[in-house]
Every structure is written in structure tokens, then in C-alpha cells.
Amino acid sequence: MRVFLTGANGFIARATATRLREQGHQVYGMDLRADPEAGVVAGDITRGGPWQDVMAGADVVIHTAAVVSNAVGLDGQWLVNVAGTRRVLDAAVRAGAGRFVQLSSIRAFSDRGFPDGVTEDHPVRPDGNPYVDTKIAGEQVVLQAHAEGRIAVTVVRPGDVYGPGSRPWTVLPLQLIKRYQFLLPAMGTGIFSPVYVDDLVEGLIRAATSRAGAGRVFTLTGGVGVPCREFFGHYYRMLGRRGPIVAPTAVAVGVARAAGRLIRLTGAETEVNAVSMRYFARTGTYSIEKAQRLLGYRPSVDLAEGMARTEAWLRASRLLP
To answer: Which sequence ranges form a coiled-coil region, renumbered to this chain (predicted)?
Structure first.
């Protein structure tokens, strides 16, 4: 196949491209910065441009480009996650692509509560968080195109993706822990739903290439939920520190809100805020039964193995001593 990736220099896209090439597929794409050796052209999904024409001949378009942050406001996230998605989708239709794969998020279920073991048929829930709300809107854009018969669409909702290169769940937490700026609400008992990047990539490719994937939404996690204090405790151990530091949710939210304001006064962006604290206070897990049944998805890297691989990468990258 010819596979075109948006956000091609990003963490998930790079891992996906590597796996596709190993399987013998031709991979190319676009990102804000070009990488000619990897077949990546420069482009911005918030604007039209020559990158849209480069998509010609693609069999599958995998759309990973997005704002992934709790620190960017609604306008900035809508411009990329919704309007940008529509621009990529329209280009894929013009290119005659056979499948469009949209990377959404488990956060489409909302951060404010959902049934334990929630399945894909549970209604999505906007909750006022720009990331949550724009991910839901992005799903609507692509699923509408599928319903109209413009292009076959698959929506993938990854869990909390960690591993070599992961900014949100590997690099950033480590940086905050080093600066003594990391705090967990709910006394660390909130539920985290990790998925090692290699497992996500395997499920993503299965969803993109399976007939059963067309027109469907799939949740892809590691299949288990773990307490946040257990997941992030691995990073404390790597640094030789005791932790994590925990607090009741109300206290953690108040501390994060105040700390975030102080950091922003310096002109810096920060993920230390009330939204992040509430995310770490979730209590539910996400079912992967649908992906197992229809795609044959079987996560193979448990948390211990995934963290061992992650630690090796962090040390090789000199992000750890």
C-alpha cells in the first residue's frame, strides 16, 4: 500500500511508519517541518497548500496531526483538531484514498465520569475541555463523510500512550518530577489506562487495513487500568526518588490551578492545571473487546516490560542519568 501520514514527525506517526515499512508498504506524509529522507513534506493542516497534492495516490491516509494538550484554548484546538481535520479529509477524498483513519482519544468519553469498562457504543460527552470537545467534533467531521459515502473512515481512540518518544506520558512527567512539580489527585488512586506505543501501532494498522474497520470506532488501550501512583511511580523509581506525591483531589486541583497561574505569568505554557488534575482522578476503564473481536487486537507488552523498554530509551537519550 501507499500510506500517507499527517503529523509524520510525531511520536505515534514515526512508530507507525517504521512498522509499515517493515511490512513492505510505501510510507510518506507531511508535518510542519520537512524530512525528505523519510518522504515528509512541509505543510500546515490549518492552511491549504502543496502538501494536499502530495497525498495523491494514497491508498490509506492516517491522520495523527493534532493539538494534544490541556494548555491550549478552544480556538487554537478547534483550528487544528476540527477545521484542520476537515482540510485533511477533503484532500484525502480528492486523492481517491480508500480509507481515512482518524486518531481521536479515549477522552471523547469525557473526563467527568463514564461506566467502568466503557465500550464504543457509549455516548461521547462534551465537558467544556477544549481537547475533549474538539476530539469529539473531529470524529463528527470524519464519520459524517463516511455516512455520506465520500470515503471509508475508521476512528481510533488510543488510551494513554507511553514509551520511547511519548511527550505527554513519558518525557513531560519525567521533566515535572525532576522539577518537583508533579502531583497526583485522589491520593494517587485515579485510574490510568496505559498502552505501550508498539501495541497501539499494531492495533492502528489492523484498524486501517481491515474491512471490519470501515465505518467503526475502536478503543485501543493495553486492556487494563492501573492506579496513577503505580504508573508514574515507575518514573520516580528511575530517578531514584520516593513518590509519587499525592493529595486529595480538591487540594490537588487548587494547587495545580495556583501553580499554573504562576507559571503562565512568566510567559510559559504549562500542563500543570486543574484539567490535568481531574484527568488523573478518573475511576473507570475502557473495554477493548470490540478491537479484539473484529481486528484480532492483542496487546503484548505489559506495564513492566513497557517501562523497562522506556527506561532504556530514556537513558540512551540522556533524559535519565
So the answer is: none
Q: Report the candidate in 315, 289, 290 with the shortest Cα–Cα distance to residue 213.
A: 290
Q: Whole domain around residue 88: which residue ranges? A: 2-162+193-223+284-300
Tell whether 13 is covered by a domain. Answer: yes
Please spell the DSSP secondary structure of 45-86, one letter per residue.
TTS--THHHHTTT-SEEEE------SSS-HHHHHIIIIIIHH
pLDDT in tens, 6-64: 999 999 999 999 999 999 999 999 999 999 999 999 999 999 899 999 999 999 999 99
49, 6 contact by CB (below 8 A): no
Task: Specify which residues 26 forms β-bridges with.
Answer: 2
pTM of the entire predicted model = 0.93
Would you call 166 helix, strand, or coil by DSSP?
coil
Distance CA 4, CA 7 (A): 10
pLDDT of residue 19: 97
Query: How many structural domains is the chain composed of?
Result: 1
* 16 within 8 A of 8, measured Cβ to Cβ: no
The residues facing 160 across adjacent strands are: 194
- Look at residues 171, 135, 173 and name the one whose alpha carbon lies nearest to residue 155: 135
CATH code, 47: 3.40.50.720
Q: Kindly state the cell numbers that stand for 263.
A: 507559571
